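FW: tagging you since you asked about this chain on Friday. Here's the raw sequence from the shared folder, copied in full. Didn't touch anything.
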Amino acid sequence: MESLESRLELLERRCRRLQSVTLAALALGALGVGVAVLRPMGASTGGELVASRLTLMDSQGRTRATLSAQEGGEGGLVLHDTQGHPRALLGVDASGSPRLRFATAEGSMLAELTVYSEEAPRLVLGNNGGSEFFSVGLMPDGSSRLELADGDGRPRAILGADEHGAPGLLLVDRKGQPRAALRVSPKDDASLVLEGQDGEVFRAPSSVQ
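HL: got it, structure written out here
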């Protein structure tokens, strides 16, 4: 007849085996949940990792990079500084236009490059206050435009060429009123228009309207 100590030892071994089986089942269950989270977009093949959002964190637990895809078609990579502020973006918006953007820690745009309609790039530079002071771009119709603005973001000098390649320069006062215009027409006719504060206008040649 087995002793009481032998029975107790046998019972302890069975309990330990049961605990091991339970832990293994829990681990497999957690692994299955993790795979389900990482594969919300459907099955993956060939060793691919399929997910709608991926976040990279540093050793301090701070977010440093986020790669995501939105339901509306937008997607992009956002890089964060050591304080977790988004500072750089490389993405594509819902219309399919790619965009590269750099910002301050407060979120003010400092530089942005966007391509519209697959053929119209536009570069914008801004100051720390968020106002655009420089922009240059090519329009879908083939015309081009360069703008210089003051500290409040108001365009003061506009240099461009129309769809025929005819160039022109326009200078604007602080109220947005044109004061000087220099232009060469598609037929290579040059013109100059100057307007003073009193409304007096100088034109050259004098036949320019």
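FW: Confidence is low (pLDDT under 50) at residues 21-41.
HL: agreed, and DSSP finds one helix and 14 strands in the chain.
FW: great, closing this out.
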